[in-house]
Design goal:
Shape of chain A: elongated
CATH topology of the largest domain in chain A: Arc Repressor Mutant, subunit A
Number of domains of chain A: 2
Order of helices and strands of chain A: HHHHHH
CATH class of the largest domain in chain A: Mainly Alpha
Oligomer: homodimer
Low-confidence stretches of chain A: none
Radius of gyration of chain A: 20 Å
Largest sheet of chain A: none
Structural class of chain A: mainly alpha
Mean pLDDT of chain A: 94
Helix content of chain A: over 70%
Number of strands of chain A: 0
CATH superfamily of the largest domain in chain A: Winged helix-like DNA-binding domain superfamily/Winged helix DNA-binding domain
Strand content of chain A: under 5%
């Protein structure tokens, strides 16, 4: 199993939809960086049980994002907000109507 | 059963996580405004089956939002983006450093 930064990010987003034991296993594995055996000891299940739980959690997290795409959407909005901030910072020292227009079009592009 | 605008909004957000038959029942009931009996005929299940399916779907949609809160979060971001647009429109005719600062603080408040 390869530890994957994407799983941590999707977990922050959709983790509450996982079962309690899945959440524990994913947190101990991805956040606390414990080994499968250490997690097995801590949760009182087999090492294979831990592995299965993490695998199922990963599939579920990818499935939530495939179906809803909300993580991708949030990332786009975040990027747009940073762009708006940068543009507005520029306006502070250097007023320019084109920069104002760009702020407006960026904000518009981020909502429905 | 009372038809509820909130359910339609949550359905647009989380509907893809429902089962296929639940999606059909919710869509026919909330979007197409069919009666339970009409939906029962169309799906080939009992009227009580339709009612149960819709009730379960409603619970599931509320549960997704209780756990994830993403719909609320999106609504807040949308409101903030409209505010940014309004502020920037104001800047076009009336440049004012305070308005620029407000755009920056609004954008900052909307992301982590």
């Amino acid at each position: 199993m390869e530890k994957n930064i994407e799983i941590s990010l999707l977990y922050d987003f959709y983790g509450q939809l996982l079962k309690e034991q899945q959440r524990q296993a994913v947190t101990l594995y991805y956040n606390d960086d414990l080994s499968l055996s250490e997690i097995a000891d801590q949760l009182g299940i087999t090492r294979q049980g831990v592995r299965d739980s993490i695998k199922r959690s990963e599939s579920a997290l990818y499935n939530f994002e495939d179906k809803l795409g909300l993580y991708k959407r949030f990332r786009e909005v975040e990027a747009g907000l940073y762009e708006i901030e940068t543009l507005a910072e520029k306006l502070k020292s250097d007023y320019d109507i084109k920069t104002v227009e760009k702020i407006i079009s960026t904000a518009k592009s981020l909502h429905e």
